[in-house]
Write a structure and sequence with these properties.
- With 1016 residues, the protein is mostly beta strands.
- It is built from seven helices and 55 strands.
- Strand 27 and strand 28 form a beta hairpin.
- The protein is rod-shaped and about 195 Å long.
- The termini are far apart.
Length: 1016
């Protein structure tokens, strides 16, 4: 249905312009000029010709005059190309003006172009006549229209514009009194009433400004080019009929359910600028419409401007001719302007409001902040540009800040508040919308958290499964009940603060995931005809569809301990949020570039938090009991509860309690006893007591580095490829290493802020080539260095058992231990006891073996098997070694032992002695060599505490002893079933002797005794 206001006003203006044109053209034709006294009265023949010409001109106008009107009773008719002037009588007045009684002016439209409808004809009637002034006398014989100078239309004046529509709904009628024409103006102080179709209006005081045609007056009529503007001075009232909607903000142009009238009132003026096609009302302007359902559309302001469509817009959307006077835009100003639509649930307040009817676009601005309220949201900003969308759609919005937006809670989400300093923009994007906020943007979500960034972009999509709101929004309202976020982007310095997560990054990307709708369960189809023929029982009533139950989540929450809040930083952060019925839950988090993630302990606990540092991090279900994290870096680092882990790619599975590192890395585990237990390899030494441990020695941790891979299930940590383990002053190198703890290391307890307990290394299994280096300290202040080389090794620190596979070597260097295998320099009566070893002398022990070793670290015993070769003697430095196969022979005071089996052990110190003693035993093919002696036996034992060496045969072969007093001296020989030698006593006992070289041995001097054999 077309708009009627513009058409009414334009016809009214045209009518007033025609009245002025009448005065400018008709008076010179019917009245003598004041400047001449020549009469222009026609003769009888000329009068007859004039009447005939008038009837012809009147017939060409058609039936525009009603039956019985004076215009049909032989009027005088003068014409121009588009104007007809009708009157009955005319009188020349003394002042040169002409009195026409009665007077009617007809304005004809432009000839229509091809396929265009005919234009509107305008009739101006003054039944009581008009007094007009022309610049020339009226010449009825020629019918020439002179220039109209001035005049007035007396009494009632009516202006009528013929209809152009088929239904006649665009006919125009204007009624007023006493119009005066002067200085190209038509004016009156009387009341004015007008009608456009069914629409009506009124006002008081009228002024119409006429446009002068540029150039000189031509032969055919006055030099007027139309109406410039029209104005009603005060008390304007308009009743607009036939408007289906779209005139006020919040209404819908497509809604034709109601044609309630639109009422326009103003205590001030109404002005219509014809050139700019602008209508302006001032002073307490009120536009309102009450619909049939009782809802109200209202606009209140101090000044209202209505822009009409251009000349080319001759038809509305329904194809109805509008005469080019269709309102397309309005602007309202006030303090403030208030636009309200109760049907659309929309209200706007601003100092200036602009509204485009076709698009329903609303523009709000002014010196003070503007306010826009809808059925479920509020917005305040410096200026707002808003285009409503269809029901359930947020439409398009541009709000320049500073400002804020707050949505009311719905069934899908709680209240959301957004604040900004630059702008907020909502625009269509594909099938959905995108909302953007810039300039210190801050958003809070239902008290659950907040987000701050330089820019925030939120993509929205329509929820097809959303239930309808209890009160449907009107056509112009903004209902967000069917809108849900799909993803979000934040840039700048991004800070997130929520109950589960606090993050800081340069860029944040979030995706939202919603549960799939539950499909209704359909009854099964009968399997056979008999079942189909059986009477059907009505199915039991089904419960309405509900969201997926949250019981598993609740159960998981009960089983898993409470988690602390996650604090994450990184240049880029991505996340996936599950929008569950119980509330949003973070499903995945990924961070890139300078990543740090901290899970804070709860309730102010003093335990150190879980810290993850790296270049990239991905966490699945970060707050769940089954969280999984993958972190990459150069290196990536994880710390918590005393545990430290570094590697290029670290994976943590809290649900399965597993941790893996792909690539080279380092791990530090908290243990109750920092040592590896390798101090038991220190032959002849006793470890220092706890009170005597120097500061920094025996740290309570186990450090492991590797080059291949690490797998840790909380109980066993497996390290592969060039593994190096250090604890205290001990180092272990191997191709592979398994470290088994005495109790599981709980990652869930670690990340929950709980304690994992006093974990300790229970067992160490290493292989693919093992190298151990250890430094031990004693209470006396001395120390020893142990080195072990073996193919693979197992150390059980709980039982003390140690097992290794050869070939391998054990080396020991200690301070203050004399070689225990030294023999007397000579076994003579004059021989003396060897001097005691110096306390600052270093002693070296090396054992080579082929098969393996076994022993017990707690009992401090080791057994070496198959082709065992040992060397024992003094050295001058910690790094010096002794070679069993040295071609130069043995150094002084050095002993070399070879056997099939060699056992090395320590005994507790004797009373009054602080130093532990060393014991050795050997079996099978024993060969003992010194710088001055050689011994062979099947069994050998040596006790450092007793200073006793025992050589024994096996029954098939005897023990043999060969010695020289010095190198190059004669060799003495002894062969017996058993030979015992006390070094400190210089005493030898021979049991079951087979052979003695008594020429070389002075038995009495040497303390030599043998059962059944007495020295001479």
């Amino acid at each position: 249905m077309e708009h009627r206001v513009g058409r009414t006003l334009r016809v009214f203006l045209i009518a007033l312009a025609a009245t002025g044109f009448y005065r400018l053209t008709i008076v010179p034709l019917v009245e003598h000029s004041t400047a001449t006294e020549v009469a222009l009265e026609p003769t009888a023949e000329e009068a007859a010709a004039i009447r005939a010409r008038a009837m012809s001109r009147l017939a060409s106008l058609g039936n525009i005059f009603p039956e019985g009107s004076w215009e049909r009773d032989e009027p005088i008719v003068l014409e121009s190309s588009r104007m007809r002037l009708l009157f009955k009588e005319y009188h020349s007045l003394p002042d040169g003006r002409v009195n026409l009684v009665p007077c009617t002016l007809v304005l004809l439209p432009e000839p229509p172009m091809a396929d265009e409808p005919a234009g509107r004809t305008v009739i101006v009637r003054a039944p009581q006549g008009a007094v007009l002034e022309f610049d020339e006398p009226i010449d009825l014989r020629q019918g020439r229209l002179a220039k109209l100078v001035g005049g007035n239309l007396r009494g009632e004046v009516s202006v009528r514009g013929t209809a152009t529509a088929a239904d006649g709904e665009d006919e125009i009628e204007i009624l007023t009194r006493d119009l005066e024409l002067a200085d190209n103006r038509l004016q009156t102080i009387e009341a004015v009433q007008f009608r456009y179709g069914r629409s009506r209006g009124s006002g008081r005081g009228f002024i119409a400004r006429l446009l002068a045609k540029p150039g000189e007056v031509n032969e055919r009529g006055p030099a007027l080019d139309g109406v410039e503007s029209m104005r009603l001075e005060r008390d304007v009232q308009i009743r607009l009929e036939g408007l289906a909607g779209g005139f006020l903000p919040g209404s819908d142009p497509a809604d034709a359910s109601s044609e309630s009238p639109v009422m326009v009132r103003s205590r001030g003026s109404l002005e219509f600028a014809m050139v700019s096609r602008l209508i302006t009302l001032t002073d307490s302007v009120d536009v309102s419409r009450t619909l049939q359902d009782g809802s109200i559309e209202q606009l209140a302001c101090d000044r209202l401007s209505i822009l009409l469509a251009g000349e080319g817009s001759s038809e509305d959307a329904e194809g109805v001719n509008t005469g080019g006077l269709q309102p397309v835009e309005l602007e309202a100003r006030g303090t403030p302007v208030v636009a309200r639509s109760t049907s659309g649930g929309l209200e706007a307040r601003a100092e200036r409001l602009g509204y485009e009817m076709a698009s329903r676009r609303i523009l709000l601005d002014g010196e003070q902040p503007v306010l826009l309220l809808s059925s479920d949201a509020e917005l305040e900003a410096r200026s707002v540009d808003y285009v409503p969308g269809p029901p359930g759609s947020p439409g398009a919005l541009m709000a320049v800040g500073p400002g804020w937006f707050e949505s009311k809670p719905t069934a899908a989400h709680g209240p959301v508040r957004v604040a900004w300093k630059k702008w907020l923009r909502v625009r269509p994007d594909g099938d959905g919308h995108v909302a953007s906020v810039a300039g210190d943007a801050k958003a809070s979500f239902d008290g659950q958290g907040s987000l701050a960034a330089s820019e925030i972009h939120l993509w929205l999509e329509m929820d097809q499964n959303a239930s309808a709101p209890p009160v449907p929004a009107g056509p112009g309202g903004v209902s967000l009940a069917g809108v849900k976020p799909s993803r979000m982007l934040a840039r700048g310095i991004v800070e997130t603060d929520a109950s589960q997560l606090a993050a800081r990054s340069d860029r944040l990307e979030i995706w939202f995931r919603y549960p799939e709708p539950v499909a209704p369960v359909r009854p099964a189809t009968p399997a056979n005809a008999a079942a189909a023929a059986a009477p059907r029982q009505p199915p039991p009533p089904q419960a309405p569809l509900q969201p997926p139950p949250a019981a598993p989540l609740a159960a998981a929450a009960e089983v898993s301990p409470d988690r602390g809040r996650i604090v994450a930083t990184g240049a880029l952060m991505r996340g996936l949020v599950d929008m569950k019925p119980s509330g949003p839950e973070v499903a995945e988090i990924s961070l890139e570039d300078a990543v740090q993630l901290i899970e804070e302990p709860l309730h102010g606990e003093s335990e150190p938090p879980l810290v993850i540092v790296g270049d990239q991090l991905q966490v699945v279900r970060p707050t769940g009991f089954d969280a999984r994290a993958t972190v990459a870096g150069r290196p990536a680092r994880i710390t918590g509860q005393g545990m430290e882990l570094e590697g290029p790619l670290v994976e943590v599975d809290r649900g399965r309690n597993r941790m893996t590192v792909d690539g080279a890395g380092r791990m530090r585990l908290p243990v109750a006893d920092g040592g590896l237990g390798l101090e038991a390899l220190a032959a002849g030494s006793v470890p220092a007591s706890a009170a005597a441990v120097p500061p920094g020695v025996g740290a309570q941790s186990l450090d492991v580095t590797w080059q291949g891979r690490m797998d840790f299930d909380g109980l066993t940590a497996r390290f592969i490829d060039r593994v190096v383990t250090s604890s205290g002053e001990g180092t272990l190198e191997a191709g592979s290493l398994d470290v088994v703890l005495n109790r599981p290391f709980d990652f869930a307890a670690m990340t929950a802020g709980g304690s994992t307990g006093e974990a300790d290394v229970a067992r160490i299994a290493c292989g693919s080539g093992v190298k151990i280096h250890n430094v031990s300290h004693t209470d006396t202040g001395s120390r020893s260095v142990e080195r072990l080389y073996v193919r693979d090794l197992l150390i059980d620190r709980t039982t003390g058992q140690v097992v290794g596979n050869g070939p391998g070597r054990l080396e020991n260097v200690r301070l203050g231990q004399a070689p225990g295998f030294a023999t007397p320099s000579e076994l003579t009566a004059t021989a003396s006891v060897p001097p005691s070893p110096r306390p600052d002398e270093l002693t070296y022990l090396s054992v080579d073996f082929q098969r393996g070793l076994a022993g017990n670290l707690g009992q401090r015993t080791l057994e070496f098997q198959q082709r065992v070769e040992a060397i024992f003697g003094p050295v001058t430095s910690w790094d010096q070694t002794l070679d069993v196969h040295d071609a130069r022979g043995l150094p002084p005071r050095t002993v070399r032992i070879s056997s099939d089996v060699l056992s090395v052990g320590q005994t507790p110190p004797l009373p009054g002695v602080r130093q532990a003693s060393l014991e050795m035993s050997a079996l099978g093919n024993i060969l003992v060599e010194g710088d001055t002696f050689t011994g062979r036996s099947s069994r050998l034992s040596w006790s450092e505490a007793k200073d006793l060496i025992v050589f024994e045969g096996d029954g098939r072969s005897d023990a043999e002893l060969y010695r020289q007093e010095r190198v190059g001296a004669p060799t003495s020989t002894a062969s017996a079933g058993k030979i015992s030698y006390w070094r400190s006593l210089n005493r030898v006992d021979v049991h079951d002797a087979r052979y003695l070289d008594l020429d070389q041995i002075n038995a009495s001097a040497a303390g030599f005794q043998s059962p059944g054999i007495r020295p001479q």
